[in-house]
Specification:
Number of helices of chain A: 3
Helix content of chain B: over 70%
CATH architecture of chain A: Up-down Bundle
CATH superfamily of chain A: F1F0 ATP synthase subunit C
Subcellular location (chain A): Cell membrane; Membrane
CATH class of chain A: Mainly Alpha
Largest sheet of chain A: none
Protein name (chain A): ATP synthase subunit c
InterPro entries (chain A): ATP_synth_csu_bac/chlpt, ATP_synth_F0_csu, ATP_synth_F0_csu_DDCD_BS, ATP_synth_F0_csu_sf, ATPase_proteolipid_c-like_dom, F/V-ATP_Csub_sf
Number of strands of chain B: 4
Main location (chain A): membrane
Radius of gyration of chain A: 17 Å
Largest sheet of chain B: 2 strands, antiparallel
Structural class of chain B: mainly alpha
Pfam families (chain A): ATP-synt_C
Oligomer: heterodimer
Strand content of chain B: under 5%
């Protein structure tokens, strides 16, 4: 296989890591909505925690994205 | 189709001669489009807050509500996470939040996003983590290292937990920098790629037009999403800065 082709395949494979972070962020929001619909009065107080959890889970997906970029451009 | 990475290229606006800094060697101090974007953001923020506080009224006008809203938003955040001691770090957190938000929004309205440069975001992250370490040592002295040994963990588990805590602490600035960088870069690339679809599908004539219309709708939707991301990433940076500062300020509760 040519090195150039392997580079693009590698970059594509690296972005598969984002599946995990997508599942994580989805789980966080589903958990928040389940809790919020059961006790709507407690929901606004948890907004910061919601965003924090989503950001922490998302960071791992971003790492995969950055690895993909490194494969292509570095 | 135009290269979607072209928008992130650094170009010199004002060429200045390189300066010899002792210990670093020759440093290029030319004003690039990245520095220009940051200067514009700084000037806009200063003008905005000057306008907000110029004629404060008891019943605030529209502009004053926005300014006070941003102020109260971060004040709430700092005090809800750190308690009364959050007030001491409020200026730093508000400055970071407003500056990152201004850079993100400037990237949405103009051609260049300074926060999509890893050099810029890494500087923010380095600033934050150096403050965390500095405050940690100033407040706790050598007890700062208790950060890596959480209370209530039995000693035999510490062998496992301490390296994990240590690595997670080292990864904090990395993830801070990469999250902002990756989000802004990814979002802007996606926007440009969809915009490219509109042109290249439209060039097919009658067959391509429905696809082009669909892609156009996509561009509009992604642009709206990017405005949300621009705010959210500035907020996330502020929240994480507060949480990391809280870890070292309230070390005994860790």
């Amino acid at each position: 296989m040519e090195a150039e082709a392997a580079k693009y395949i590698g970059a594509g494979l690296a972005t598969l890591g984002m599946i995990g972070s997508a599942l994580g962020v989805g789980l966080i929001f589903s958990g928040f909505l389940q809790g919020a619909t059961r006790n709507p009065s407690a929901a606004p107080g948890q907004f910061t925690n919601l965003i924090l959890g989503a950001a922490l889970a998302e960071a791992l997906g971003i790492f995969a994205f950055v690895i993909g970029l490194l494969c292509l451009f570095a | 189709m135009a290269d979607p990475m072209h928008q992130f290229q650094i170009s010199k606006v004002v060429d200045l001669p390189a300066v010899n800094v002792p210990g670093l060697g020759l440093v290029d101090l030319s004003i690039t489009n990245s520095t220009l974007a940051m200067m514009v953001a700084a000037v806009l923020i200063t003008l905005f807050f000057t306008a907000v506080t110029a004629k404060p009224k008891l019943v605030p006008g529209r502009l004053q509500v926005v300014g006070e809203g941003a102020f109260a938003f971060i004040d709430d955040l700092a005090t809800s996470i750190m308690g009364e001691q959050g007030r001491a770090f409020f200026p730093f957190i508000l400055t970071l939040f407003v500056f990152i938000l201004a850079l993100n929004l400037l990237g949405m309205f103009t051609v260049f996003t300074a926060t999509s440069q890893v050099a810029v975001t890494a500087t923010f992250a380095a600033l934050t983590i150096l403050l965390v370490i500095g405050v940690g040592f100033a407040k706790n002295g050598i007890k700062f290292f208790k950060l890596f040994a959480p209370t209530g963990v039995p000693w035999y588990l510490l062998i496992l937990v301490t390296p994990i805590e240590f690595i997670s602490f080292l990864l904090r600035p990395v993830s801070l920098a990469l999250r902002l960088f990756g989000n802004m870069l990814g979002g802007h690339v996606a926007m440009k790629v969809f915009a490219g679809f509109v042109v290249s599908l439209g060039a097919f004539g009658l067959v391509g037009i429905p696809g082009a219309v669909l892609a156009m709708g996509g561009v509009v939707a992604i642009t709206a999403l990017e405005f949300l991301v621009a705010f959210l990433q500035a907020f996330v940076f502020a929240v994480l800065t507060t949480v990391y500062l809280n870890d070292v300020v309230h070390l005994d509760q860790h």
